[in-house]
Amino acid sequence: MNERGFIEALRALATSPAARGLKDDAAVIEFGSETLILTHDTMVEGVHTLEGQDPADVAWKLVAVNLSDLAAKGAQPEGVLISHMLGDDDHRFIEGLRSILAKYDVPLLGGDTVRGEGRRVWGCTAIGRATHIPVPSRSGAEAGDAVYLGGPIGQALVGFEALRDGTPGDQAPYCRPLPQIDLGRDIAPHVTAMMDVSDGLLLDASRLAEASHVTLRLDSELISVLAPQERLDDAMRWGDDYVLLCTGPHGLDQHHALTRVGSVAAFKGDRLLVDGTPPTGDLGYTH
Amino acid sequence: MNERGFIEALRALATSPAARGLKDDAAVIEFGSETLILTHDTMVEGVHTLEGQDPADVAWKLVAVNLSDLAAKGAQPEGVLISHMLGDDDHRFIEGLRSILAKYDVPLLGGDTVRGEGRRVWGCTAIGRATHIPVPSRSGAEAGDAVYLGGPIGQALVGFEALRDGTPGDQAPYCRPLPQIDLGRDIAPHVTAMMDVSDGLLLDASRLAEASHVTLRLDSELISVLAPQERLDDAMRWGDDYVLLCTGPHGLDQHHALTRVGSVAAFKGDRLLVDGTPPTGDLGYTH
Q1: Which of A34, A109, A287 sits opposite B19 (nearest CB)?
Q2: pLDDT in tens, B76-106
Q3: Fold match between domain B3-130 and domain B146-274
Q4: Cβ count near A166 (within 10 Å)
Q5: CATH superfamily placement of domain A146-274
Q6: If DSSP codes are grouped into helix, strand and coil, which group holds residue A151?
Q7: Fewer CB near the last or first residue (10 Å), C or N of chain B?
Q8: Which of A19, A97, A125 is the closest to B40 by Cβ?
Q9: Contacts of B260 (CB under 8 A, 6+ apart)
Q10: What is the ipTM of this complex?
Q11: How far is B241 from chain A (nearest CA, A)?
């Protein structure tokens, strides 16, 4: 059974309508008078982090990737549970955890610690409260909508290379991404579809297009202002930026910190077009 | 920083009153008109499982230990999120997951899959809805209460030895424990304190006593009817049985499937007395 087979088998078990998208989307359930958003991400040392990376940055990112999933639902974070494998430099993990929880004013609710060997594994479950009903999903984009990004892409790529190779460049966008909680909440009432760019713009845009049964037409000239010079193609295929990708009416960028990068068209055989052409090669990071 | 230091540092971060007991207790938060219970457990191959154990049993136990935490809160399970490290025999993991979700009628809401190397790691977050307010905690036991167990202990010990050594004996109590969801919900309105026995009766009873600032006086003759013959001492120090341990008024065992095993006294220097004497040695499994 390969990974895709496993995920398909899991999806077959997840018959609840709340389980919109195992692995790459948050669960949405009605709970009392409120709507609850739940998301879980697991990180493996050396797979989702660089070997030897500061555990403070690992802790930050572990929480950040989950908060970014909540941001894509326009949710207000209510708390996190952390799973931590004990190791060296645990005080650094605590320090990073303290920093991001303070930055986003999110309570630590609980979790588990385990002993292990070899590569360390960390998990985070985040819960949030929906601020707008219906909760934005990936599946609502409609022909005629504009496509927007909530921030720059490729910053994490530059930060990753700076950290890995010791080259100049700001490491922070890779080490300490900033989930767009406020933006997500502000635009939730206005978008037709929303997700965060975690695995690469092209890959995530194609996922949104597939969920919505539409074609996303991206314009590289519009995107270029959001990406590092001469790295546009890499930036579109690199993840870890955790900016919001959304669709909605034209003009949303007049009132919110959004940049228009394309438009939505009726599906005619291609999920994604960049300057009118389907992109080839790896569209992003699959893990 | 050792494990205790790490957990203390985590607790210092967990300033929310919802975070009653990181690692060994569930979080309780108000959510809309309901009260939400959240718990997370992580399992490491070869640490919390036997090497080479059937992944179907691993999946069962992963969910069961979390449902047992919900049972101790008298909570109705609302769903689980699963974190799974891909490996061989993933179809068996799916099969075990399917079995326990069907048995307890719990929806799979989401989760994550990762690739890794070496020992595999699994995580489960369970959410539940409180059925009785106040939600039972570990801290409400009072002098004069009776102490009860919700089922036998030492069955998991016999099952573990049967599995590890190929000796005769029912492996099911170790491989497929049965969290006492119905019992927990039934007795939640009547208990003064409740938890599940996951790490050994003596260890867990001492934790309940400490949280409640009382002394628990256990009676080995009363316990002996719940344990395998001639293994009473082992059974009291072995975990994995996932039966409920609670305190409350005398006579609760007349109306519920509980066995009285002792009484609660005012604290006078010992957390725990067995037949009047403080137990020595390892009280249970710390991990």
Answers
A1: A109
A2: 999 999 999 888 888 999 999 999 999 999 9
A3: no
A4: 8
A5: PurM-like C-terminal domain (3.90.650.10)
A6: coil
A7: C
A8: A125
A9: B146, B147, B148, B222, B250, B253
A10: 0.88
A11: 19
